[in-house]
Specification:
It contains 11 helices and 11 strands. The protein is an alpha/beta fold and 297 residues long.
């Protein structure tokens, strides 16, 4: 088995182009085309649809993609173990993450990690909850950072508690108190994270007899902050984002207090690659110093 053929197939599909994959992987155009033809001859059927604008996996290719990604992950694990035995920690880590954790956590974690493991390549893919779940299920990520992974198919490691806060326009009547009752949102124009991105706000609003009027939806937390600042509605967002992003909107605790659990997921903790296991340790060490790390349920 030539593992390079499978690697080239995955990258070509992800990039939608044989020429882009050949450039990234260091092959000639004719070389990667020959590899794809050889791979299809090897499996006994076509894997891709070739169009004028690039390539797409056909139905058979779609069926094999998760298995091939798992094969590449296993091969990477083998190579990293061999490298570790030789005394050189190398490899790459694919991280799927919420934007807030990618922005406010990962730079510090990766900076510390790279001082000890400078030869490890790290890829960060930002996305919402649905995309992260799909990536983990398809073995497109070695590790994820987000919330709500307790009942998923992968192993989940809770890290710290993050408070959910009400976000109000400047001068809004609800800013006059010390906290905002969750019930008060029933009568407000509400700005909601778009479906598939963050379910924590839905969990808070599920306490109400009926949802507030959803005036706007957005997939970007910073867009929500700016909509609230402009007086277009109210919102609920996590403290991690609000304590790091400056705006004129007013952030206040909810009554009763509401929290989300920030955590880390891996496909199988017992079989993660050596380089991923090292990175997990750096994430855990960083999380210990975050607010709410000592208040997990």
């Amino acid at each position: 088995m030539n593992i390079k053929k499978y690697e080239a197939f995955v990258r070509a599909v992800e990039l939608g182009s044989l020429s882009k994959a050949s450039e990234e992987l260091g092959y000639t155009q004719s070389g990667i085309s020959h590899m794809m033809q050889s791979l299809e001859d090897e499996v006994g059927f076509s894997l891709m649809i070739r169009t004028s604008s690039g390539i797409l996996p056909n139905s058979e290719g779609e069926m094999l993609l998760p298995i091939i990604r798992q094969l590449l992950s296993t091969n990477e694990n083998l190579e990293q173990n061999i490298a570790k035995i030789k005394g050189a920690d190398t490899g790459h880590i694919r991280i799927a993450s919420f934007s807030s954790m990618a922005i406010y956590w990962l730079p510090n974690i990766i900076s510390a990690f790279q001082k000890d493991y400078p030869n490890v390549e790290i890829q960060i893919i930002e996305g919402g909850a649905d995309r992260i779940n799909a990536m983990m299920d398809a073995h497109e990520a070695d590790l994820c950072l987000y919330t709500g992974g307790e009942n998923r198919s992968f192993d989940w490691l809770p890290l710290c508690r993050d408070e959910m806060l009400a976000l109000l326009p400047p001068g809004h009547p609800l800013t006059e108190g010390d906290s905002v009752p969750v019930e008060a949102f029933k009568n407000e124009q509400f700005i909601m994270p778009m479906a598939g991105y963050d379910y924590e706000v839905h969990h808070v609003l599920d306490r109400l007899e009926h949802y507030p009027h959803i005036r706007f939806s957005a997939c970007n937390d910073y867009a929500i902050v700016n909509l609230v600042t402009a007086g277009l509605g109210v919102a609920i967002l996590p403290e991690l984002l609000l304590r790091n992003y400056r705006s004129d909107a007013v952030a206040m605790p909810l009554d009763p207090p509401q929290y989300r659990i920030l955590g880390m997921g891996v496909p199988q903790l017992k079989s993660v690659s050596p380089v991923t296991r090292n990175f997990i340790r750096y994430v855990q060490d960083y999380a210990k110093g975050r607010p709410g790390a000592d208040k997990l349920p």
